[in-house]
Amino acid sequence: MGQTIHFMDTSLIPIWEKVQRGERLSFDDGLTMFRTIDVISLGKMAHFVQKARSGDAVYFVLNQKIEPTNICVLACKFCDFATKAGQPDAYEMTIHEILHKLTPDIHEVHITGGLHPDWKWDYYLEMLRQIKQQFPDADIKAFTAVEIDFFHKKFKLPIEEVLKQLKDAGMRTMPGGGAEVFSERVRKRLFSSKIGAKVWLDIHRAAHRMGIPTNSTILYGHIETLEERVDHLIKLRSLQDETRGFLTFIPLAFQPGDTGIKPTHRFTSAIDDLKMIAVSRLMLDNFPHIKAYWVMLTEEVASVALNFGADDLDGTVGGEKIAHDAGAITPMQLTKEKIIKIIRDAGKVPVERDVFYNPLNVFSPNVIGQIPYLNSVPFYHHFEKRKFKLLPVSPRRMGDLSRNNQIDAGLFSLADYLSQKDILTPLPYCIATRDQVKSVMLFSNHGWQELNNKVIGIIDDTATSVRLLRVLLEKKHGVKAELKRLHSGVNDYEGFDAVLLIGDEALRRQKFGLEKFELVYDLATEWYDWQKLPFVFAVWAVRKALPLASRDELASLIQDALEKGELELERISQMHAGRIGLNPMEATEYLQGFNYRMGEREWRAIEVFENLLASVETEVEQK
Ligand code: SF4
User: What is the CATH classification number for the domain harbouring 366?
Assistant: First the structure.
């Protein structure tokens, strides 16, 4: 993980030192980075962060853009898409026409469009319902904050009610458009009738609180200043600190078209685009993903951006009109094969995803699953990859990928290792607790005995902890509760008597608490007090089909990485503590609580758990 950068611009060196220590960058750091001419060093810093967050993965989704109408009550100056009813180019799509554009292979329907003066509220709800009904595998990402605000005013419904009804009708996430630049100066000059920063941020805050993850954007390359760009990033970062509801950030390069905006009758330069991507990755330390939106960047710039901090290429994007009406010169749609080629050419692993960034298909050999939580960092921090590539993925999804022959090895959730013993061989490494774990936590309003017949929400990521919870409930405490999985990426805990969280989110909540839940139980402590044994949450394993030489090579790489990682626990902890909200000492203490090597007691613990597991229900109902 160590990396040397030869800086041409020495003003970047203090920023690099902060980045390596995992420290947050300031407003001035943002400005320094935008002003630098040392673009290569900037890109290397951003790539360092990108690799730490996303390994070698670059995501894409098979998606279809639906812009139901271009008739709009507003007339924003930079918009070449909108028109008025009666104009020759005005169009309105029926639900039938919308459905006709969709195909069963897509996983995301992205809906945004003009603010139509006459359409009824029911039309929007019915549109979502019918899409959901006819294309159940496609998740709907719909309506920018500008549209949500329009619905709120036009249909006289509170924002939360608008969001609730859309969510009930099938909306799973929201796109990030309409943010433009959070500057009153720019807003007054370019889109004075459109919502400003406060309303945009309030709507996204409300969505996050209701369990609707969203994306975010900036429209750059017109009349905004560099200070306004940095201010925009910092405002987004602050909201993310509060809600953790943003999935990705998408810098949108301004397409001048016939908008008449001066003095920028030009497309952004490739250098400016790459700086924007890199600075975003570095400033937005709490954002999981940064997207290189090829539609606006061009395929060539988007390809380079995959080594400048971006880990997402959006998707096939069939049907996009807004950017193309404004003069985007890119093709209207890329094939899946083309996207895979662009990602491979950038030296990355193409990963087809769903709307929540769950991996569905991996297009590369020798891929190793990486648990993306702090507790596994000692294995990965010094991991020398050689021919192997790393894919960060939640424990449950890693099991699914292995079942579908998509990865060759990984730190598998114990439950997945046990259920796939016929195709997996264990290596002598694991994540096992000594007594407590702090990152597999049940937040509850009831004591264990009172949980009988209660409803417990289960974070989507877990494969083993949910089974451990079931064993504890039924075999230790003699109670039966109803377990329901939360939707992936959603932190809506409304209506549950208790919630099971794992990983870094559990660690953060263990420190700061979870609103409305007063009691907190550490499942590893519950297990230890009962069995006087460690609990093994994850086991390193490789596919039996992998050649023996590769297996041995991987085992020795893990051994080397772990030895180095254990010697540097404090430094590694410091690098990661901030993004979780811990101080370095708390993070170090947390990591010291694990045993990373399989021993007799760990195998014994697995055997005891497997026997208990055989007599409890393991299916969990989807919410
Ligand atoms: S940017 Fe959106 S709100 Fe503004 S005119 Fe265009 S479609 Fe309408």
Answer: 3.40.190.10
Both 80 and 134 in one domain: the answer is yes
- The DSSP output letter for 473 is I
What is the DSSP code (8-state) at residue 6? -
Mutational pocket test of ligand 1: of 79, 92, 119, the residue with most ligand atoms within 8 Å of the beta carbon = 79
Same domain, 263 and 297: yes
Verify that 458 and 578 share a domain, yes or no: no
CB 46 within 8 A of CB 292: no
Its pTM stands at 0.90
Determine if ligand 1 sits within 6 Å of the CB of residue 82.
yes
Say if residue 482 is in the same domain as residue 561. no
Residue span of the structural domain in which 348 resides? 57-360
Give the model's pLDDT for residue 367: 96
Instruction: Say how far apart CA 339 and CA 331 lie, in whole Å.
Output: 12
In angstroms, the CA 592 to CA 606 distance is: 21
End of a domain among 337, 360, 383? 360
If one residue of 66, 194, 259 were mutated to test the ligand 1 pocket, choosing by the most ligand atoms within 8 A of its CB, it would be 194
Does residue 74 have its Cβ closer than 6 Å to ligand 1? yes
Report the amino acid identity of residue 36: T
Neighbour-count burial of 120, counting CB atoms closer than 10 A to its CB (0-12 exposed, 13-18 middle, 19+ buried): exposed
> What distance in Å separates the CA atoms of residue 469 and residue 455, rounded to the nearest whole number?
13
pLDDT at 460: 87
Strand, coil or helix: 544: coil
* 6 found inside a domain: no
C-beta 114 within 6 A of ligand 1: yes
Total of domains in the chain: 3
**Cβ atoms of residues 16 and 44 within 8 Å:** no
- Please report whether residue 11 resides in a domain: no
Give pLDDT, residue 386.
81
228 located within any domain: yes
* pLDDT computed for residue 294 by the predictor: 83
Q: How far is CA 429 from CA 426, 483, 536, 550, 554, in A?
A: 8, 30, 10, 17, 12
* 433: enclosing H helix or E strand: strand 424-433
The whole-number pLDDT of residue 265 equals: 45
350 lines ligand 1 (CB under 6 A): no
Look at residue 264 in the predicted model and tell me its pLDDT: 46
CA distance 591 to 375: 6
Mean pLDDT by 10 residues, the chain (623 residues): 85 96 95 97 97 94 93 84 92 96 92 96 98 95 97 97 97 93 91 90 95 94 94 97 92 74 62 96 96 86 95 76 60 79 94 94 95 93 89 94 95 96 96 83 95 93 94 95 79 87 90 90 94 96 94 95 94 86 91 94 96 80 55
The verdict on 568 and 514 lying in the same domain is no
What span, in angstroms and rounded, lies between the C-alpha atoms of 372 and 503? Answer: 8
Token pair for 68: 């139901």
Protein residue with its CA nearest to atom 7 in ligand 1: 114
Amino acid 204: pLDDT: 97
pLDDT for the residue numbered 318: 60
Q: Which long-range contacts (CB under 8 A, 24 or more apart) does 11-19 make?
A: 11/36, 12/36, 12/38, 12/41, 12/42, 12/45, 15/45, 15/282, 16/41, 16/45, 19/45, 19/48, 19/49, 19/282
